[in-house]
Amino acid sequence: MSRQLTFLMCSPRGDKSASHSIGSYLVSLFEEKGIVVKTFGAYRTLKNQEKTEEMIKSVNDSDIILISSPLYIDQAPYMTIKLMDIISEAFQQGKLSNKTRHLFAISNAGFLEYYHNNITLKIYEQFAKQNDIIWAGGLPIGAAGTYAQYPIPEFLKMLEQLPEEDPRNEIYTKPTKILDSVIRSSVNHLSKGEIVPRDELKKLEFIPMPLESYVNGANNGWPQAAEEFGAKDKLRDKPYER
Amino acid sequence: MSYVILNGMYKDDSFIPRINQMVSDEFQRNNYVGDTVILHDEEIKPCLGCFKCWVQTPGICIIDDYGREVAKKMIQSDVLVYITPINYGGYSAELKKAIDRSLGLISPFFRVYENEIHHEMRYDEYPNLVVIGTLDKPNSDQEEIFTELVQRNVLNLFCPKYSSQVIYTDDDEATIKKKLKNSLMEVGEENE
């Protein structure tokens, strides 16, 4: 019988999000290994009782649960926590059978440094522990906005075109290749019913460029984004100032 | 001096209302003015992650519901209090929903602060933060995560002073009062 995975895509931004892009890449690799995947978007699942029940049934049937979620103010957003609460409640009510399940999670942030995601990953671990799910590990991903724009496989193909001496290789190619390798290794382990070794996940613990360079690059984008709404000169407004 | 309590209890919680009342009483004894928002009683939609509170209506969430009022209360208070059951080490979904909607209180622009990337401040002043978490029994893993989470919130929300406190549901009245008093003192005028 095929192994099953429940993918909880927890970004409110839906398929425009890094959570969707990165999570879907893992899903495609799991499917290549013959694992049956059922995907649930948090927004739709929470809005629709039938969908919620379908998600619980899928978790019940699954060997692996995959959460992919952004970081909002140091923690996963409301929708992710709400989904975890619904699953915990189902466990407490005996709606979920006692089978071996693994939880693997992706936490992605707009900050450059991977470690802003660490608390969220620890929270997922506690959620797993509380419900007798095996914590298989998580991917802490910084500067994740890039992957919302460019899914990892396509991005790697684009980066192949860069000349060897191009400085973007250090900033983009190297980190994306490492992330790709950790993802592939994680999928391999999880597909065999194993947790992902800590040493493997630790490969993501690096900062690919000077902080100031990232700050300058990111800050240039906001006035451009606001221009579309005629708000370029209002970005520093203080509407609730006392 | 003013305060606002964001009460993130779940509907069936019978312990947190007691804590909430004791915190309010302590503020009033010290001549603070303020109120409590019982978050599950309010119609607050979840954050859409659209960033329009940064680029379209800077500082104000695009969703016109009570979430806007909560964000306004947060930034206009001297002391902001979160009360929440400790949920896997983090906050309750109810509390997190309100916090997500307060994203406009910070600026979209990044800065390097204490050798890490954080957002810039939107406002010149931010409230002190008191976070009170409840647990049925001691749980060192979850308490450690909770404390770390509060510390990260303080960095990202620019709170000048803060305290975090864990209260167990079987703590006796005197212990609870002492814990709450200490927490409020840590951020109050007495400490200046």
Report on the architecture of this protein.
The complex is a heterodimer of chains A (242) and B (192). With 242 residues, chain A is an alpha/beta fold. Chain A has a single domain, classed as Flavodoxin domain (Rossmann fold). Helices cover 50% and strands 14% of the residues of chain A. Chain A is built from 10 helices and 5 strands, in the order βαβααβαβαβααααα. In chain A, strands 2-1-3-4-5 form a 5-stranded parallel β-sheet, sandwiched between helices. The termini of chain A are far apart. By secondary structure, chain B is of the alpha/beta class. Chain B has a single domain (2-191), classed as Rossmann fold, CATH 3.40.50. Chain B is 36% helix and 25% strand. Chain B has 6 helices and 7 strands; from the N terminus they run βαβααβαβββαβα. In chain B, the strands form 2 sheets. In chain B, strands 2-1-3-6-7 form a 5-stranded parallel β-sheet, sandwiched between helices. Chain B has a two-stranded antiparallel sheet with strand order 4-5. In chain B, α1 links the parallel β1 (2-7) and β2. The radius of gyration of chain B is 16 Å and the shape is globular. Chains A and B meet through α4, α5 and α10 of A and α2, α3, α4, β4 and β5 of B.
**What series of H and E elements makes up the topology of chain B?**
EHEHHEHEEEHEH
Per CATH, the architecture of chain B is: 3-Layer(aba) Sandwich
- Please name the CATH topology of chain A: Rossmann fold
Going by helix content, strand content and strand pairing, the class of chain A is alpha/beta
Distance between the termini of chain B: 14 Å
Number of helices of chain A: 10
Output the radius of gyration of chain B: 16 Å
Secondary-structure content class of chain B:
alpha/beta
